[in-house]
Amino acid sequence: MGTNPNQVSAGGQASASSASDPKVKQLAGVAQEQVGKVAEQVKSRIGDQLQNAVSRLGNQVQSASDDLRVIGKTLQEQNRHGLARLTNQAADNADQLFLYLSRSDANQVLNELRQAAQRKPWPTAGACFALGLVGSRLVKNSISSDKSKEVSDGR
């Protein structure tokens, strides 16, 4: 009984002659090329989504800056000059953040965030904790408002 060079051995591995088969090499090359194309598409999509997220964040920061300026003006009119000054400084900082976000590439923003987190891990952890608390409160409030709306609608 002769052995076929393309047969799989008892250990489940193809014989050495099948690995050198031109068809196998060609299929492996095509598969590798397809995997590379898919990887590039995924990378591009993630990059686009990240850029969109940075852009949305920039718009939200700009909106917050505008709101802070209105609050600062109201405080100034109420002769609360100290609070008005602090509010206007926060608005100035928000404007600077907006400019940075609008001029920067999303990958650059991520790299700089990583570097800042490596330089100062504890403040970064504290900021993440604070953002988590704020986020959980927002979710809790939105759930509570949805439930109260359902009750008032008679559902």
Keywords:
155 residues; 2 domains; elongated; mainly alpha
Q: Your description of this structure?
A:
This protein is mostly helical and 155 residues long. The chain has 2 domains: 23-105; 117-155. 83% of the residues lie in helices and 0% in strands. The protein is built from 5 helices and no strands. It is elongated, with a radius of gyration of 29 Å. The chain starts with 15 loop residues before the first helix and ends with a helix. The model is unreliable at 1-12 (pLDDT under 50).
List the total number of helices: 5
Shape: elongated
Instruction: Give helix % range.
Output: over 70%
Q: What is the straight-line distance between the termini?
A: 78 Å
| Structure classification | mainly alpha
Order of helices and strands: HHHHH
Task: List the quaternary state of the chains.
Answer: single chain
Q: Main β-sheet, in a few words?
A: none
Task: Tally the structural domains.
Answer: 2
How are the elements arranged and paired?
Blueprint: H1 16-19, H2 22-77, H3 81-103, H4 106-119, H5 121-152
Concise summary:
It is built from 5 helices and no strands. With 155 residues, the protein is mainly alpha-helical.
